[in-house]
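Handoff note, outgoing to incoming analyst
You'll be picking up this chain. Sequence as last confirmed:
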Amino acid sequence: GRSAIDNTLLRNVLLPWEARELLIGRKVRKAACKFFAIRQACILQKLSFLLQLNLCDFASKEASRKERTAACAVLKALSPEDLESVGIDSESICWKQLRATGTIIAGFGQLAADDQKKVWEAARLLVNPPETNSGDLGSSIRSTGSASGREPSMDADDVFEQFVAWCRDRPGEFFQGNRLRHIEVHLAGIWANKIIIIRRSVMERFSLARYFPLYWLRTQPLWGVESSEAIMVRDKGVMESSHVRVNECPYSAYHGMALSGGSHADENLRKASRSRRHPCILMEMQWIRDPAANIENWFLTDIEKILQEAWQLNPHGPKEMHLPGEMYVVVGQNPKVGSSIKETQHTQLYEGALSSYPVLQLTANPRFSERLSAWIDIVPVGPKKSDEVASAVAEVMPEVSIDASQDSQEDQHGIFVRICTQRPTAPDLVKFLVELRLSLLKQFGGAQTLDFLDLALSDEAGGFVIIFAPIPQLMKLGDEKPDFASWANPLTGESSDVVGLEEARVDVGKGVGHFLCAKKELRKQLLADGEGTLRRIWAFNRVPGLRLAIDNFIAQWRLFSD
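Most recent structure output, in case you need it:
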């Protein structure tokens, strides 16, 4: 796919030799492992006769861990001469695996990495031998004598190989950007036996990124803004899907992510018959439905996606009504400064609720809006008392001095809009947030200048809290990796070095107090004054003039009766 996380739907358009390796090669590897198990059973019988021990029971699949450990110790004590005396090759895969684990092999995954590669190459030679003359593209590839062949390439002369390479590199997009050309090559390749289509339900068995889908209707456009010019990325009225899967690099409890999955045909994205029990043919073929659903993650904060996922994933009642296993989930999207994946839109999900994060419980002057049926609060976040912060930092880092002369002023604080509501997906509320984001982007110079941290979570009483935080696009100083670099706020001219912050970024994790401490200095700073450091990080990410812009927008919307 386009990125490291774009693997919930595996490519199902293959060249003939790729399909043979995937399907037949898998069966060949399984058969090889069965033969290995038979050979290992014979080895154990020979050694049991030699040593007058019942090693077969000790190394069987039903043996206990203690018995397997004992068998492994006995096997490791044998010398090459002992093995040679009973006709066992000490360099064979069967013996090395048996000696290392003390048990008979149960599957391909138990082999060592080098042995897996050898078996894989042998299986490839069996299903696609170099001398094959079947007339397809795989024959010419293997005429070089390579068992593995080469990956399909867009530079190939064969249009069908180009098509397969396109489907691999740009899943969900029409071939060469042309819908009719895509259909033409797709169907011609099937009829000519130049490409093989594997059913989606079969390919999903090979995926390690298991997911479950959520479906929702977009009620407001998704806007991108470049240099104050608005561009509609997704129109309202389209059905969207979110593929919820585990996050392979977690930094919170039960950490997952939700990827956009609306590009391919899905029977749940249309009004399918309730009597249908099997996937439709277009879904099985992974037929491209909506190429525009493949959107990037940077500069496109998808507020409605966040709200819809939070609404569907969280219980709608108080904690006392929880069923066994139910929990609250925080949903948010990282701004650019906290995201390592640009190409694939995704939101972050993890266990938590309002009571989990004190910074999100801060309030200033909440007011109820009958138009939105929600409480609206504009919350400034900054150091509580400048002298306390300065003294705490001085104890840990005496070489750092803090100018605290203006810390108490509100324009020196970061800001987030805090909304409490019973229904986060209410049309008027979604429209308000979408248009507020669009208005701020136009006023402050577009997405290259302004970014957003948006969160949605439960208040544990049947309602939801929405956090809408406009933040500056920070600039990385120097060539260090992001976790070790210094950062500058272009809108204020400050740098993290000058203000004495070891971490200056606000994102889904750091914005609420989750920190991965790659630097010892950051850990030391957080342990000395965790709350103070988090408040100062929010203050560092302030946007001058933001409060006035938000107040003016609220006045235009006439949210309050007075």
